[in-house]
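Proteins fold reproducibly. Next comes a concrete instance:

***
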Amino acid sequence: MVKAEDTVSELQILGGRKYHANSKIAYLMPEDADEADRLKKQHIVLTYNLQGNFKAPLREALEEGIAVLDSGCGPAAWTFDMAKEFPNSKFYGVDITTQAFPEGAKPDNCEFQVANIAEHIPYPDNTFDYIHQRLLVMGLTHESWDNTLKEMFRVLKPGGYIELHEPNLMRMRNTGPFIEQLHNTISGMLKSRQIPSNIALQLDDRVSNAGFDVERIIMTPMAVNHKNKAGELLWEDYRHAYVNIRPLMSMQNPDWESVEAYELHMNACGEEAKENKTFLDWHTCVAQKPLE
């Protein structure tokens, strides 16, 4: 079930891709079928690297049946996986547009709703036992992170868990000049939009300040374009993501208005990651809402 309007964002066309044009929405990635496909493939890579879909101590509760929110669910790959694995639990996905939601058949224990989580999560107080959110490093401003965590605290039941996943994108290990140029460019773009590029390193403090008790901070190093097939697939996702924001990157670096020039740069990044054995540090924060 989808409620509210089809979208809470206007869209604009840049380089043939659809991007959010609503000033209240900071999300940088495009809103189209290609990006949805990328996120579905990304889910498979992350599940392999993280050795599962969740870290919160909730397996027995999920098997018995609880209420779960996937915040910023996108095309709902995680939501669907979890709903199929835990049919006794009910899963709710929230995103800023129905264009992200999967079409066709969905598990009976899933429903979706349109909302801007940075402003309001459209559920009553103390609704959920577990809230999952990942990869909003390019989607929430400093203020929006605080608002979102405040809303999560409100809709989570006392004793419930939140689980946040964010990569330390701007401080990958064993990089070189080509990847660093990418990072410097996007870091400037994020800073100009008041988006914290190092949110992965801030999760502990922000979550604590919102009133949660932090239970675990897990750092998982992920190989980029080396080591094994998972490393190659992570590189493909990394490259695909940067290709998808080329029109925005070219606003910072006019040389990248040329698709060919940008492709050459991304190819060089891939070779650099392989040669230097680059790693992406993935941060997971598991926290609990106090019982009182």
The two ends are 33 Å apart (CA to CA).
